């Protein structure tokens, strides 16, 4: 297990470097000069030039990227050009709402997606199977911003059941649950479709294996055959999909947090890019990359639990 973790961490280093380099190049292409943003639009040219020199912006791009990596390695992500607060503090404040949103989304969408896919596989060709597949296709096809706007119109404006702006109190309070309901529902509806489809396909494939046929030949009930002998083996590709989709939730969270004014990493990143606050934007890219890598590491560890042959 330890060797597996070390191997995955070793492979994660070049991935993280590649993401940082790609994000750095993208931000270089964004219109706007960080020195002008920091000095103000009315600052004289000599002041702007001095700020550019102090920030290292007068150096070649490779030198700037190397200076950025040196700061990242010592935990210095710089200060926000707008609020002048350390980027670490801004990220620490924004990461908690994002984790809450992802947790509230995953805690119901994963079990429901697996249950829907399993029932559809057990009732293959039935009306239930077709209904589950129709809902799955709808969830995959509809973009998260469209689902969010529909939910806001129905539950927020027409029925006035749930608030749709900002973040409430902690999740264990009624105010917190009411504020997170619509954002978590929006993300979860996009998440359920792929999980249900993959679970259905995987369960159908496993049910044709020899050990499942043997279990049926022994006279075991179909429910016991599916849940005890089939579902565990069927979950291996589902875990892969869940890991990838959880990483993609970060992208969906950017849109969802912007629509619902949820004060998370996604909204912080959008605000940093729109206001040319490049240090905030770079910090958000780094935080998202580390989160994605951590999710994939957790998925690899779950592999070894579901199938011990993976860790050999």
From TrEMBL:
<dbReference type="InterPro" id="IPR045621">
    <property type="entry name" value="BPD_transp_1_N"/>
</dbReference>
<dbReference type="Pfam" id="PF19300">
    <property type="entry name" value="BPD_transp_1_N"/>
</dbReference>
<keyword id="KW-1003">Cell membrane</keyword>
<dbReference type="InterPro" id="IPR035906">
    <property type="entry name" value="MetI-like_sf"/>
</dbReference>
<feature type="transmembrane region" description="Helical">
    <location>
        <begin position="177"/>
        <end position="196"/>
    </location>
</feature>
<protein>
    <submittedName>
        <fullName>ABC-type dipeptide/oligopeptide/nickel transport system permease component</fullName>
    </submittedName>
</protein>
<feature type="domain" description="ABC transmembrane type-1">
    <location>
        <begin position="95"/>
        <end position="303"/>
    </location>
</feature>
<comment type="similarity">
    <text>Belongs to the binding-protein-dependent transport system permease family.</text>
</comment>
<feature type="transmembrane region" description="Helical">
    <location>
        <begin position="280"/>
        <end position="306"/>
    </location>
</feature>
<dbReference type="InterPro" id="IPR000515">
    <property type="entry name" value="MetI-like"/>
</dbReference>
<keyword id="KW-0472">Membrane</keyword>
<keyword id="KW-0813">Transport</keyword>
<feature type="transmembrane region" description="Helical">
    <location>
        <begin position="234"/>
        <end position="260"/>
    </location>
</feature>
<keyword id="KW-0812">Transmembrane</keyword>
<feature type="transmembrane region" description="Helical">
    <location>
        <begin position="134"/>
        <end position="157"/>
    </location>
</feature>
<feature type="transmembrane region" description="Helical">
    <location>
        <begin position="101"/>
        <end position="122"/>
    </location>
</feature>
<keyword id="KW-1133">Transmembrane helix</keyword>
<dbReference type="Pfam" id="PF00528">
    <property type="entry name" value="BPD_transp_1"/>
</dbReference>
